[in-house]
Amino acid sequence: MLRRFTDTFVLGALLGALAGCSDPVPAAVGVAIELNVPESGGCALQGPTPQLGDLKSNRRAYDGDKGLSASCRVSNNGGGFTFQANVRASMPALTFNLTNGTLDANGKGTALLSLFATAIGSPVVSPASQPCTITVVNRDNKLAVQETAIWARYDCPTLNGNPTPICPDVSGQFYLENCGK
Questions:
Q1: Is the peptide bond before 50 cis (omega within 30 degrees of 0)?
Q2: Closest by Cα among 3, 2, 150, 166 to 81
Q3: Whole-angstrom distance between the N-terminal and C-terminal Cα of the chain?
Q4: HSE of 107 in the Cβ direction (CA atoms, 13 Å)?
Q5: What is the Cα–Cα distance from 106 to 83, expressed in whole angstroms?
Q6: Domain extent listing, the chain
Q7: Tens digit of pLDDT for each residue in 17-72?
Q8: Which of 3, 61, 101, 173 could form a disulfide with 34 if both were Cys (CB 3.0 to 4.6 A apart)?
């Protein structure tokens, strides 16, 4: 009886040690996106403007939840940051991709946005010649950007479809956390 208890104890300790050797599971990417599309130009909305998460109440949507796929990268480049994001949600139907994102040390920069929302009707993108302006939110006298996270406002002078619609003055905010470096 004592030998069986000892064997079981040793086997349990070995299995527990092996389980402790695995890499920790990374935290899921958290996202909140606010989208403002004026009902002018060729971008008249067909239904409510989609939102993901809620910036006002600090609610995030997380990668893997209810059809959400989200990935992002925020890296310190020594004098500012570079960033990118790929977000695809099924409810609400929304695709929000930021590429070529750069920020200076003051939290100001640019990025290219490609966007699809059922309410718009077809995909739209910011032309390379007119990137969106990015301004990091200032929270408690500190810029809300660090490696792995960013909270910023975006202002896009135009987002173009192929061939239509053309959406002028699209703006909003995005929050990304648990991003890669």
A1: no
A2: 150
A3: 54
A4: 17
A5: 15
A6: 27-177
A7: 444 555 666 789 999 999 888 776 667 666 677 789 998 888 999 999 988 999 99
A8: 173
CA dist., res. 1 & res. 180, Å (int): 52
Q: Pairing mode, if any, of strands 149-160 and 30-36?
A: unpaired
Q: Which residue in this structure is represented by tokens 């490609």?
A: 114
Contact indicator for 171, 37 with CB cutoff of 8 Å: no
Distance, in Å, from the CA atom of 36 to the CA atom of 170, rounded to the nearest integer, reads 6
The 10s digit of each residue's pLDDT in 120-138 is: 778 899 999 999 999 999 9
Report the b/e string of 112-135 with b at 16+ CB within 10 A: bbebbbebbbebbbbeeeebbbbb
Structure tokens at 30: 């958290």
Asked whether 147 and 25 are in contact (CB, 8 A), the reply is: no
What's the CA gap between 84 and 52, in Å, rounded?
A: 17
Residue with tokens 């930021």: 98
CA-based nearest residue to 33, from 178, 120, 151: 151
- Residue 22 token pair: 């695995």
- Contact predicate 28/41, CB 8 Å: no
